Amino acid sequence: MVDLQKAGIIGCGGVGSATAFALAQAGVFSRLVLLDADRDRAQGEAMDLSHGLPFTRPMKITAGDYPDLAGCALIIITAGANQKPGESRLDLVKRNTAILRSILAPLMEVNREAVLLIVSNPVDILTWAALKLSGLPARQVMGSGTVLDTARLKYLLGEHLHVDSRSIHAVVVGEHGDSELAVWSGANVSGVDLPHFCALCGKEEHQAAMDALFQDVRDSAYEIIEKKGATCYGIAAAVRRIAQCIVRDERSVLPVSTALHGLYGVEDLCMSVPAVVGRGGVEKVLEIEMNHLERQQFLASAATLREVTEGLEL
Length: 314
Known about the structure:
Elements: E1 3-10, H1 14-26, E2 31-35, H2 39-50, E3 60-63, E4 72-77, H3 93-110, E5 115-118, H4 123-134, E6 141-143, H5 147-161, E7 168-169, E8 172-173, E9 181-182, E10 188-189, E11 192-193, H6 194-200, H7 206-228, H8 233-247, E12 252-261, E13 267-278, E14 281-285, H9 292-309
Parallel strand pairs: 1-2, 1-4, 2-3, 4-5, 5-6
Antiparallel strand pairs: 7-10, 8-9, 10-11, 12-13, 13-14
């Protein structure tokens, strides 16, 4: 039996530690186990986080090893090589697939009931690899996908339109990376079609503005990495949101990376598409409407990922 109030994080680098902080601040779990190849790093993070608990909610945060992950309802994998300036997420694939393999072998011996949430990049490829290597049901293995990309899109749209980003309904799908795309055809602001809302706001040259805005969304990680070395806070907030959906069985719709078997005309790949996320992981994968151009872009993104998966030996 898994304990819905217990979670584990494997990898205590910038993303892993920021995620642990986000989960602690939100009080999502009552027990959090941290693992890292550098045991001292994990212990230091656990101590530092624990010292802030008097200001949040009761929680036990410890450093541990794989046997300590037994009973976890959610295991978040952030371990992997960092993305370097000028390096695409797909360049990381071989290094991080080897790291993932070394993690899953001992993990599967102690816990096959948890939902696995892959955050390490390239997240779609590693989610696919985790599914193959673990042998777990597809619903139990997901990646953080384009949840953060979608948040970036909503934020920048909100700034552009001078409206609360939470009122914006739009989604980024495909690869979490250079071939991702925004589904503009379905975007709206609280039910008002996006082009019409832009017209109401006096925004002219709508398509050119959206193209420029999406380029900022797609390339924002590169800019952040160039300026500060890595991204951590945005993705930590995205992981916290996914974790809340699971532990509270919210059945919220999020664009996580999940296995596709025929939907969108894609077979045996993990890509980011809207899915219902709840206690069991991915409860249902949704096939949303896209116009002809968007569907072609989605299939091109799938082809990009397919080329990489065919070069992996699992």
